[in-house]
Every structure is written in C-alpha cells, then in structure tokens.
Design a protein that fits this description.
Layout (H helix, E strand, L loop, with lengths): L1 E4 L14 E4 L5 E3 L1 E5 L6 E6 L2 E3 L5 E4 L4 E4 L3 E3 L3 E4 L5 E5 L1 E3 L3 E4 L3 E5 L8 E12 L10 E11 L5 E4 L5 E6 L3 E5 L4 E4 L3 E6 L3 E3 L2 E4 L9 E4 L3 E3 L4 E3 L7 E5 L4 E3 L5 E3 L8 E5 L3 E3 L4 E3 L5
Parallel strand pairs: 1-4, 2-5, 3-6, 4-7, 5-8, 6-9, 7-10, 8-11, 9-12, 10-13, 11-14, 13-15, 14-15, 15-16, 16-18, 16-19, 17-20, 18-21, 19-22, 20-23, 21-24, 22-25, 23-26, 24-27, 25-28, 26-29, 27-30, 28-31, 29-32
C-alpha cells in the first residue's frame, strides 16, 4: 500500500500542503493499493517519474481527498484495478497500459489524458461521478467501455474523438443514469471495428456524429430500448470507402439532430444504411440526404 497525502487517517489533516513525489525506480514500482488523502481543497498534488504497476488481487486506487492529484507516472495494469473512495478531488491519470481493466466507482471526478491502451474493460458505475476524456487518444486502445452510472464528458481539447480504428472496440451507454456528453464543437467518430450502443434510457449528447470506418460489426450505432442520441452539428453515415449501419429501434428510442443535416453515404459508397424499426425515430433533421448507391 502506498499512501500519498496527510497522515491523520484516511481524512488527512486539515490544511495539508500540496504534496509532490517522484518514482525514480529504474524498474516498475509494484503495488496493489494507492491511497490519496489531502484535506486542502486548494492543493494540487503531483506524482511523477517512472511506471507504477498494479498487481495481485484487490488492486485499488482510493480517493479520500478533497485536493486534486495529477498522476503523471505511466501506469501498468497487470491486474484489474478498482477506483473508489468518498473524496471529492479530481484525479488525473495518463498513459495507462497493461492487460488489466478498470472499474470507476463513487462520485469523484477522474480525468484521462494522454494515450491509454490498457486491454481490459473500462466500467464506469459511478453515481454522480464523472470521467473526463481530455485527449483524442484517451480511450484509443481500450477494448470495452461500459457506462452504467455517471457521466462521461469528452472535452473540446480534440476536434475529433474516435472510438475504434485500433482493433475492435465496444462502447455501451446503459441506463437512465448514464450520460455520455461530447463538447458541442466536437465530432464523435465511430471508426473501424467500433460498436456504440445507447440503451435503456442512456444518452449520447453533443456535437456531430460520424460513422467513417469500414465496419465489420452489425451496427456501428445501435439506439434501442429508449436510448437517446442528441446531435447539434451535421452528421454523416459512411464515406467513399466505408460500410456502416445505424439501427434506431424500440419505442422511445431516438436520434435528435436539433435541426442539423444528416447525410447517409456518398455516391461512391454502398451498404451505408439508416434503419428505423419498432417505433424508433430520427427527429428534427434539417436536410436528410440519401445518396442513391445506398440500399
């Protein structure tokens, strides 16, 4: 266990200073518990240096702090990692690799920056909590992302945020307490091998939505069981070299364009399909363009 912050128990000491530490181990620093405690709301604490590696069972990062923590060290997941704790400070992490996955719990905010390529699932079951995606590659290599509770916010630091294009990638926004929000000026791109599912009252909101990969999955975007997608800029299904299908199905399931245009395919592409089924709808479309080579 590595405890970083105040020493008055998990709550730390009131008025803690900002802490800074550097891992100068040449080889990975091995641990299975990293605990953050700082009772100073103005403190920004920094952990820098060489790689931290989580291994063994019950690996956890615990946030009991009201201060912010920047984890600038690379992090290797040799096992699954649970992120938990009743603190309110922001934790920023970068360059997460390894075979393990992560589960984010509780109400504090996590910020992902840099390029993260861990192979395990990323599950967000974080009532009133937030995960901020601060870079275009924040989830570039993550195999499965499941948002069950809480908010994911892709910021406007990147003009285009892409899921897929780096092997298969499944993203699910599941349940009335699950909200994925993209910055209004951003394009959310569903690339090759990606499958995005919005279901059971979950919402995907903001910006433009494009499907630009040559997809091998049944539906690059599936909106079902009361799932809702809200766009604010012109959106496109397919390009000259792509094959993509969108299915909006079930009562209450919708894709709302907020007056923006929607284009399905191009004159050179085939098999780009928008399918509405069993009460699913696409609403508030400015201009709907269906190119003739699509079926």
């Amino acid at each position: 266990i590595l405890k970083f912050g105040g020493f008055g128990g998990y709550g730390g000491w009131g008025g803690d200073p900002a802490y800074a530490a550097t891992n100068d181990n040449v080889v990975n620093f091995l641990l299975n518990r990293l605990v953050f405690t700082n009772d100073n709301t103005l403190a920004t604490n920094t952990l820098a240096g060489n790689t931290l590696e989580f291994r063994n069972g019950d690996a956890a990062l615990e946030q009991w702090s009201v201060g912010a923590y920047n984890v600038y060290t690379p992090v290797n997941l040799a096992t699954d990692l649970v992120l938990r704790g009743s603190g309110s400070g922001i934790i920023a992490m970068t360059n997460i690799t390894g075979v393990g996955g992560m589960t984010k719990l509780d109400s504090w905010t996590m910020s992902l920056v840099g390029s993260n390529t861990f192979l395990g699932a990323f599950t967000i079951d974080s009532t009133n909590g937030t995960v901020r995606l601060e870079s275009a590659n924040a989830l570039i290599g993550v195999g499965t992302v499941a948002l069950n509770n809480g908010t994911v916010f892709a910021t406007n630091s990147a003009a285009v945020f892409t899921v897929g294009n780096n092997g298969s990638q499944a993203v699910t926004v599941n349940g009335a307490s699950a909200a994925w929000s993209n910055a209004p000026n951003m394009t959310f791109n569903i690339g090759t091998g990606a499958a995005v599912k919005v279901t059971a009252g979950g919402t995907l909101t903001g910006g433009a939505l494009t499907l630009a990969g040559n997809n091998s999955v049944a539906y690059g975007l599936l909106v079902t069981n009361g799932g809702r997608v809200y766009g604010s800029r012109p959106s496109t299904i397919g390009n000259n070299a792509s094959s993509n299908q969108v299915l909006v199905t079930g009562a209450g399931s919708l894709w709302d364009l907020s007056g923006s245009n929607l284009t399905v395919g191009t004159a050179a592409a085939t098999n780009n399909i928008l399918l509405l089924d069993k009460g699913g709808s696409v609403t508030n479309v400015g201009t709907l363009t269906l190119n003739p080579s699509n079926n």
